[in-house]
Amino acid sequence: MAELTYRDAVIRGIAQEMERDPDVVFLGEDIAKAGGVFKATVGLYEQFGPLRVRDTPISEQAILGAAMGAAMTGLKPIAEIMFSDFIAVCFDYIANEFPKSRYMTNGQTKCPLVVRTGNGAGSRFGAQHSQSVENWCMMIPGLKVVAPSSPADVIGLLAASVRDPDPVIFLEHKSLYPTKGEVPDGEIVDKLGTAKILRPGKDATILALALMVPRALAAAEKLAAEHGIDCEVIDVRSLVPLDTQTILGSVAKTHRAFSVEENPRLCGWGAEIMSIIADEAFYDLDGPLVRITTPHCPLPSADVLEDAILPNVDRIVERVSKTLNS
Amino acid sequence: MAELTYRDAVIRGIAQEMERDPDVVFLGEDIAKAGGVFKATVGLYEQFGPLRVRDTPISEQAILGAAMGAAMTGLKPIAEIMFSDFIAVCFDYIANEFPKSRYMTNGQTKCPLVVRTGNGAGSRFGAQHSQSVENWCMMIPGLKVVAPSSPADVIGLLAASVRDPDPVIFLEHKSLYPTKGEVPDGEIVDKLGTAKILRPGKDATILALALMVPRALAAAEKLAAEHGIDCEVIDVRSLVPLDTQTILGSVAKTHRAFSVEENPRLCGWGAEIMSIIADEAFYDLDGPLVRITTPHCPLPSADVLEDAILPNVDRIVERVSKTLNS
Amino acid sequence: MNDVARPANTALNDDIGEDVRLKLFETQVVIREAEQRAYDLFLQNLVKGTSHLSLGQEAVAAGFAVAMKPGDLSFCTYRGHAHTLARGVPVEKVLGELMGRDNGLMRGKGGSMHLTSEEHGVMGSYAIIGAHLPIACGAAWRAQYKGQKDVSVCFFGDGTTNIGAFHEALNFAAVWKLPVIFVCENNFYMEYTPIGDVTAVPHPAADRASAYGLERIVIDGNDADAVYREAMKAYDKARAGGGPSLIECLTYRHSGHSRADPAKYRPEGELERWKERDPIKIYRERLKQFGIADAQIEKIVSGVKATVDDATEKCKAAPIPPLDILTTDVYADGGWAWRN
Amino acid sequence: MNDVARPANTALNDDIGEDVRLKLFETQVVIREAEQRAYDLFLQNLVKGTSHLSLGQEAVAAGFAVAMKPGDLSFCTYRGHAHTLARGVPVEKVLGELMGRDNGLMRGKGGSMHLTSEEHGVMGSYAIIGAHLPIACGAAWRAQYKGQKDVSVCFFGDGTTNIGAFHEALNFAAVWKLPVIFVCENNFYMEYTPIGDVTAVPHPAADRASAYGLERIVIDGNDADAVYREAMKAYDKARAGGGPSLIECLTYRHSGHSRADPAKYRPEGELERWKERDPIKIYRERLKQFGIADAQIEKIVSGVKATVDDATEKCKAAPIPPLDILTTDVYADGGWAWRN
Ligand SMILES: Cc1ncc(C[n+]2csc(CCOP(=O)(O)OP(=O)(O)O)c2C)c(N)n1
Ligand SMILES: Cc1ncc(C[n+]2csc(CCOP(=O)(O)OP(=O)(O)O)c2C)c(N)n1
Ligand SMILES: [Mg+2]
Ligand SMILES: [Mg+2]
d(Cα A231, Cα A253) in Å, to the nearest integer? Predict the structure, then answer.
């Protein structure tokens, strides 16, 4: 066991997989010699050399297209898109190429690659560098979509993503990079498609992802202490595949569900999950399904504004307690 | 009153607005001299001349970027993106530029433009030319998103979109182009953000969009005739702004809701609406909220396969009747 | 077309030789016959969907394919029947796919615009303009990284040179010195708009080569020998680690952009002028010039016709795909489960 | 830098003249002082978020801005403070925005990367590489369509020339003959990677000009006179209907890419060599050469310093933005309602 930052966990996760398999290669902007703009790839160039860790031009379409062509023909590329907002400039690969090739070719084409990207708000970068874009990916059939909240999950889910035979979008939360957590020694390999119950509870289920996970946990403690409400907190971790068993199992027990989403409201992952619950677990429910999201609005830059717009502990506590007490 | 095809309604809608306002200009690939690949812009070049109706290179980013710059500085551009799937190659404008500029600049920047695009399946074009991408747009804060189902709505909503001071994504369904409908004479201007109850009913609410609207209506007739179930069918028409009043009002009356979505399942507009109903109208509900969507899967090309994958009348009838009778 | 390099060599035993020439001819005829049949089947409403024919452009596909080694990789567009057939994919598989039959290359799941046969090195047909140029770079990167000697060849049209992905791919390939060949089939039109109306330079590909430090290459795309020679040069260079090439082939499509297009936008006489330079006509004469007997030529043609006829009958008799393939092969496990 | 055109004219009353020269100098000093202050405030933790300084690149911003007429439009990147200040936007508004104060240009809603002041012709700062090149085309299209005589000027870096939108915009502008000027500030680095490592040609912009039928232009971006002259030429051409220009300005940023970057990737001595060619140092000497007295120069500098000091105090004292602006101005009605 060692304490590691989420940032260093990314490095360790990539290194673990590159050591294991010489077909794992890594490309992106400023990721090699400079170690990445978030310093989340420091040392990989030195360890694995210029053929396996390659700096690219500012050409996101070339980055993802090249990753795909390499994946189709025998490599297991990891591609970095520096900020997840930039997925918009290479969205054709995310939406039309990676996820459709296997289906269209009746199973001939494989596409085992990972797109790592810095997602989410909290760095005062403003509207074009702070978005939570997990839903841009979740809504596309054929992708897998993962968003870890802890250093140990970073390593384990990254390993699982690299080993997965399908294209995986791996969303690292920028505001989690400096956070720390205990990480077991040795190889770590987790499983995609598995949510984690981080805090068992009986009164309500709170679903959260990435940066919202620590906030949901803190809110649950406060709800317990101040309102006597015992919440079960689930870290969804993997949007696709989605662990509906764990989620529906929890709702069957608590009879109430809340989502805490960093994304702007419309068509968020919470909407999807709530629509599943409202269909399949309707008769388990004791009351409304409530989503706590960032308002459906671009993100502001100033610190006070950015802090105020995201879901936070107090907003979660208030929404959950008011809903359950009404 | 005259009978018009949906295709000709597009032409008439654009012409109506270009006649009214010389600042309305129109650009896209093959839209001018050739009249558009769907023949939905025939005659506009002849009527309005080469300065107002302009063919572009195959440069979707340039098309949308140019539309934005023109809109910011005083024009009211209509830009065509030939197939909605191609939004993926210019998604930066849809996701990061149009919808954020006004907010980021604290209201300084305006962006009054319309992106028209051929959306949806049914032409045996395969996975990269058949998608329903309304949710790619709906999930982005700052856009407006419209999808008409009838020729009259095409004209009225297109006029409202062109006159709207915000960026509007206007989704024309490719399979509806040849369909016909009655259209009033003279100028037609509709209102964004308004759903339409096309068939009143008391037993369940069916929400549909674009090509799914005629199917939902046909299903409702069959449900009435064969199952004695009286469905209210709502054409959602405008995803943003969303007419939640009409929708919630209907659910308050029927106590049951279904969505019929052409899009692949995850994070569809139906998920959003169901999550709103499950929160705000929970106590109105008599049973599960059910979404009928295309499977979460790319689209096949062969006619039999394509026909089988989209929601159709029988599938709607079966889902609704089974759900209500269980 | 003043700047087109025309082959000067007319010696009997020249660099190309008889075997290759016969192969070049046969390949062009296969494409011609199969495409014409696809058109007929469309008129009979047996080909649904869209389809984009290469009638008139056969020499490009044949020249590049015949010059390939097994293991070399082709990346095509929606106008990909020609390149798919040129790699030896059976006509039946192609027509079956166009007709949406279970015997199609992808059992009807891909359709005309997405022909793929990895076993023949056809790594896919891509229907989003420009998308496959970066993808071909990736395949070439794999070859470079693994020390494998195959080349990746990427075909696209003149109109494609104006989209962003073209630019990114060319720069990327040049900087990484990848064994990838970019083949621009300049047929002078994007869909219905003349390329000159929307392009800042006369040669949409070649006039951009210098922007990537590449040689300016324009060839006669209707002469399979010229294409073959240029292809060989480019492949050799790529295999030797010399990096990418960008080759602009001047050619012309005899039919409309897609099955829906009567191509009324063409100036009068243009099609006729190009038909005089029909690649198959040119090549028939070439074969004669090299002393190949008429009978041998006719035998090839009739052999191809028989194959196409046979394929057509098989496709007509083939079942439609079963609905249980609707949601297969979304993921590598064969299924489409997005949840547990 | 052998191919840089250096101004030869040293006559006292040359084409530029004293008034413009003083304006060029002052503009550069404003940028220098304001940017240095931004850096100090960042060290004091008063500037949050990121910021991208143009220290060392002032001559480009000054030269292009001073050559503009009122009504001309600037389109900037995340490295946009310089261009914003050069159009006359008050220092206080810029620093206020960087500090997230209510007196900022956009009241803290945009931040350092999105400075916009439409009343000064600053039509936005864009943080997605390449996105604003097509947007500038659109503004130029409006001018062309309406017969208005303004030009749209779009600034971007060397690294930006490798993204697709660059290519699409250049071709589009050239084909439509738009009054738009593309200004590449080649500071030899994308974020931390030397541009030469990832670009197929030595001059990332100029060596691509011919791909769009444009003239190859490379100038000394550290000499405000050279910049001013080239700007005037390009603007005149654009206003006369002669279409777009692409101008590559060779320059260098003295600080790191952004506030987080110590710029350790630079080879030793590189920064020092460029500092010898500091644009403000160069221009101070130029002024002397043209007989401007030291005292007058110092007066300009101290005037600017006083302005920046004053702005700093005002920003420190300014309130933070009220939370009720959090969701305003998403839509034109002032609000953010996505439902009724
Ligand atoms: C991104 C994108 N934009 C537009 C289209 C529609 N489209 C299909 S083919 C085509 C013309 C392509 O022209 P060219 O590259 O010259 O190839 P050709 O069809 O002549 O072989 C267009 C515009 C598309 N498929 N993808
Ligand atoms: C599409 C996109 N990719 C990557 C980035 C991250 N990024 C910001 S600035 C930068 C370097 C830009 O280099 P250059 O164009 O030379 O401008 P400079 O910063 O040197 O002024 C990069 C890669 C971005 N903002 N947008
Ligand atoms: Mg063409
Ligand atoms: Mg730079």
Answer: 11
Checking ipTM against 0.95, whether it exceeds it is: yes
Q: Tell me how far apart the alpha carbons of residues A182 and C284 are, in angstroms, rounded to a whole number.
A: 74
B-chain residues within 8 Å CB-CB of D126? Answer: 97
pLDDT band at B149 (very low <50, low <70, confident <90, very high): very high
So what's the pLDDT on residue C7? 46
Interface test with B, best of A68, A267, A323 (most B CBs within 10 A): A267
| Mutate-to-test residue for ligand 1 from B82, B89, B125, B133, highest number of ligand atoms within 8 A of CB | B82
Mention every residue, 6+ apart, whose C-beta is less than 8 A from residue A117.
A80, A81, A82, A83, A84, A86, A87, A169, A170, A171, A172
CATH numeric code, A196-325: 3.40.50.920
Chain segment B74-109, per-residue pLDDT in tens: 999 999 999 999 999 999 999 999 999 999 999 999
> C20-316 is classed in which CATH architecture?
3-Layer(aba) Sandwich (3.40)
The catalytic position among B129, B173, B227, B255 is B129
Residue B62 one-letter amino acid: A
Q: What is the pLDDT of residue D7?
A: 46
**Looking at residue D12, what is its pLDDT?**
56
The segment(s) of chain A belonging to CATH 3.40.50.970 are 2-183
- Which atom belonging to ligand 1 lies closest to the Cα atom of C131? 1
Output the CA D79–ligand 4 centroid distance in Å.
Answer: 10
Backbone torsions φ then ψ of A285, nearest 5 degrees: -85, 140
Confidence (pTM): 0.98
* CATH code, B2-183: 3.40.50.970
Collapsed DSSP state (helix, strand, coil) of residue B321:
helix
In whole angstroms, give the CA distance from residue A179 to residue A8.
Answer: 10
Given a cut of 90, is residue D104 above it in pLDDT? yes
- In chain C, where do the E strands start and end? 73-77, 122-126, 152-157, 180-186, 218-220, 245-250
Task: Give the separation between CA C133 and CA C154, rounded to whole angstroms.
Answer: 6
Q: In this complex, which of B89, B265, B301 lies closest to C108 when CB atoms are compared?
A: B301
Name the minimum distance, in Å, from the CA of D214 to any CA of chain C. Answer: 9
Q: Would you give the distance in Å from CA B307 to the centre of its chain?
A: 20
Q: Does the C-beta of C100 come closer than 6 Å to ligand 1?
A: no
Closest ligand 1 atom to B129 CA: 25
Q: Can you tell me the mean pLDDT for D198-223?
A: 98
| Contacts with A69 from chain C: Cβ below 8 Å | 75, 123, 134-142, 152
Gap from CA of C132 to ligand 1 centroid (Å): 13
- The sign of the CA dihedral B266, B272, B275, B277 is negative
All CATH 3.40.50.920 domain ranges of chain A, comma separated, are 196-325
* Active site (catalytic) residues of A: 129
Contacts of C135 in chain A (CB under 8 A): 65-66, 68-69, 72, 97
Q: Mean per-residue pLDDT for B178-198?
A: 98
Confidence of residue C49 (pLDDT cuts 50, 70, 90): confident
Q: Please, are residues A248 and A277 in contact by the beta-carbon 8 Å criterion?
A: yes
The per-residue pLDDT for range C253-310, each reduced to its tens digit, is 999 998 888 888 999 999 999 999 999 999 999 999 999 999 999 999 999 999 999 9
Written as one string, the DSSP assignment of C75-114 is EEESS-HHHHHHTT--HHHHHHHHTT-TTSTTTTSS-GGG
- Min Cα distance C32 → chain A (Å) is 24
B127 touches chain C (CB under 8 A): yes
Between the CA of A235 and the centroid of ligand 3 the distance, in Å, is: 51
Contacts of A123 in chain D (CB under 8 A): 49-50
DSSP per-residue codes, D182-241: EEEEE-SBSSSSBGGGG-SSSSTTGGGGGGGT----EEETT-HHHHHHHHHHHHHHHHTT
CA-proximal residue: ligand 1, atom 21 (nearest): C157
